[in-house]
TrEMBL record:
Signal peptide (UniProt feature, chain positions): 1-27
The protein's name in its UniProt record: Thioredoxin-like fold domain-containing protein
A Pfam family it matches: Thioredoxin_4
UniProt keyword terms in alphabetical order: Signal
Amino acid sequence: MTISRRIAFATLAAPLALGLAACGDSAEGELTSSEPIEHIAAPDGQAWTDMVQVTDADGYLMGNPDAPIKLIEYGSLTCGACANFAQTGADALKEDYVSTGVVSFELRNQVHNAFDLTLAALVRCSAPESFHPLADQVWKNFNDVMGQMQGGQAQLANLSDVPDEQRFVAIADAAGFLDFFAARGISRDQAAACLADTEEVMAIGDRSEQQSEELGVNATPTFILNGRVLEERSWEDLESVLQTAGARPAEG
């Protein structure tokens, strides 16, 4: 049975860890020093940070798809360390580096639990351009979202009795996710329709499991720079890595 099916049919009584330590084991990587790379202009009338496309890996790539520095983050929407990065570094990454056309930023979900899987489906429930802002909203309101989620756990003890097409809707409703996303442009009906496609929701978890195994991703957040898995997780350390690779911040 795949991880998404185990998640979908399991009860949700176990408490969730909300700490800021990386959610898993550490990764390793090496750095290669490069000369500064000239900024690359976006197409006329556009900004790189407004350009988002879904990749073959089901990630959401923001910025220049041909950027010489390609950064991927595997993040869990229920991971405190990922929330810390979103709160302390995500805006600077996008505004100072993705905006230059030299760095692209692709966010991929790593799924840790049924709430995580439900959130991963909900942030996909609108246009691709909404994916990053919605994920950031979850992380930037992390304590509130997690508090509501933990408060809803008791309601889900008999989740296995819920029809398949209503399972993720029930999770989202109990955890307060439907109201959270409704306040951010995803109506309850729209969210319910997304979550009713159980096979598509579980496919997100299947891809997460497969990619994590293939790439050796065993912690979140994990960053991959031009195919190399990094050990850096904080924005301060990651910015140094980007600059070593040749990125320079946009001029103010």
